[in-house]
Design a protein that fits this description.
This protein is of the alpha+beta class. It has a single domain, classed as Trna Endonuclease, Chain: A, domain 1, CATH 3.40.1350.10. It is built from three helices and five strands, in the order H-E-E-E-H-H-E-E. The model has no long low-confidence stretch (mean pLDDT about 90).
Length: about 120
Amino acid sequence: MSKHLLIGQRGEQAVAKYLEQQGFAILAHNYRQRCGEIDLIAQLGEVLCFVEIKTRTTEYFPISQVVTKAKQQKIIKTAKWYILTNKISNKVLRFDVAIVTGAVDTFTIRYLPNAFTNCSRSPY
């Protein structure tokens, strides 16, 4: 495994641990469909979070450069597929971004709840 992939994987593990410490249940890691991938799917009560994780060794840059509109649309489409195939209803849906910076042993997590939204009229 390349160093780049290893750092990304460790960043995702750090965010999963962080969310679990906040009381979230992790429902899926690296959920993939043809339309895209979601790094983590987590739930806290009635809130279902679709989390995009960006791991960098240096400080982050503007969120618009981290998760582009095109990437947001892929995440939203993949989330709709997850909701449909798992017959999920009556949940508050949230699209979060976690920015992980630093070295593997000294990660800093900047967690951005509601980082972007599904702008369509349909709730699903």
